[in-house]
Amino acid sequence: MRILMLSWEYPPHLIGGLGRHVTDLTDALAQIGVEVHVVTPNLHHADSYELTAQGVHVHRVAVPPVADRTFFPLTQELNGALRHAALDLHRHVGGFDLIHAHDWLVASAAMTLKHFCHTPLLATIHATERGRQQGHLTTDLSFQIDRLERLLTSEALRVIACSHFMAHEIHAAFDTLREKIDVVPNGVVIRPSPFNSDAERLAFRRRFARDDQPLVFSVGRIVYEKGFHLLVDAWPQVLAQFPQARVVIAGAGVCLDTLQERASSAGLTDFILFTGRISDEERDRLYHVSDAAVFPSLYEPFGIVALEAMAAKCPVVVAHTGGLAEVVRLHETGLTVYPNNVNSLAWGIQHTLAHPEWSQQRAANAFHEVSTRYSWHVIAHTTKNIYERVRDERRHAQHETHPVAAPHFVGAYW
Q: What is the distance between the alpha carbons of residues 69 and 19, in angstroms, rounded to a whole number?
């Protein structure tokens, strides 16, 4: 089975969870015998072609000269470049069994390729513009993104959502038939401890806190919907019970300067450390030395960061919203708190720090769950089954169609 995967993000270009999802999914699919070709923009001057160690074919497309370098025109120009590169690849390899597109950023290329190549289209919707904007579309850019998301879900033969929350949102926002939506969760890679000894672990932790100081960690894109402002606002309450507690907030984004000013105005500069963007290795080390990982999102389609913390056996505190509410079960695999509620968030952090034995038991339960339910091997097999069902349905449709009419029928329907 040969798959064309279209994604705006792929290493070294990683912004959020989408890029990690595509990377880990394609690796796992290749390991179970699926031939995967990823076509993605070359936004970091990487090699134009790469065959990864896992066997994924990566084709990076150069950014064309664009007069208007603002975001939306750039994405559409790049979609043209992705389309041309994928058409050449289609001819070179002898076609694909299906096209798998990830989010609106590659929607234009995916929809055109579906018709040009007479190939069925699947789409994974990782988030929606309506969700990111809390249901309010107020700018031309938001309306343009929303339109592309609707078109993509309409053109796709099947739509994959990472959570039941997202499946409901796609159905409600775009009138997508429920029966054409498959729910396939994100996964996580279980990695060994990044430290070779307790001494190495302590030395790393002491970069952020003394041995007697509780350490809390949060990571993600620094944007409004991730709720980091709630964590800053909750910290004085945490300090009331744990006067020496420290929190590390890692990530970059449009709200970073505002968030730092908020912490400074509240007199929290000595208690909150903003690291900016960090490597995956640094992130994993922080999970392994922290007493809690906190994710206070207002909108979270899935919450892969929670899985990463759980895979490192770090106790988690998350807002009971979106996909996070499906990943973390209260008092079993972590603590859930009321969304957009500073007092509830402070309670979750205080409870986790005050009862380390309970917190570690929840972390152990969570680790067992991510090792089984959220294994990329399991997710790859589930995804491959969807691919095979689509391929078999297409072959059946072609067989039932009169040969003379077949090209027109397939192009219009698939």
A: 22
Q: Give the CATH class of 2-187+376-413.
A: alpha beta
How far is it, in rounded angstroms, from Cα 32 to Cα 34?
6
Q: Of 21, 33, 38, 5, nearest to 121 (Cα)? A: 5
DSSP state of 403: T
Residue 354 amino acid letter = A
Residue whose C-alpha is closest to residue 225's, from 291, 336, 335, 324: 324
> Please, what is the end-to-end C-alpha distance for the chain in angstroms?
18
Which spans in 242-355 are helix H?
256-265, 280-289, 304-311, 324-327, 342-354
pLDDT tens for residues 87-141? 999 999 999 999 999 999 999 999 999 999 999 999 999 999 999 888 889 999 9
Q: What is the pLDDT of residues 254-271, one digit of tens each?
A: 999 999 999 999 999 999
In terms of DSSP bridges, do strands 49-51 and 57-62 run parallel, antiparallel, or are they unpaired? antiparallel
DSSP for 181-238, please give it: EEE----B-----S-SSHHHHHHHHTTT--TTS-EEEEES--SGGG-HHHHHHHHHHH
Assess whether pLDDT exceeds 60 at residue 406: no
CATH topology of domain 198-372: Rossmann fold (3.40.50)
Cβ atoms of 303 and 188 within 8 Å: the answer is no
Take residue 402 and report the two structure tokens written for it: 């009169």
DSSP assigned state of 120: -
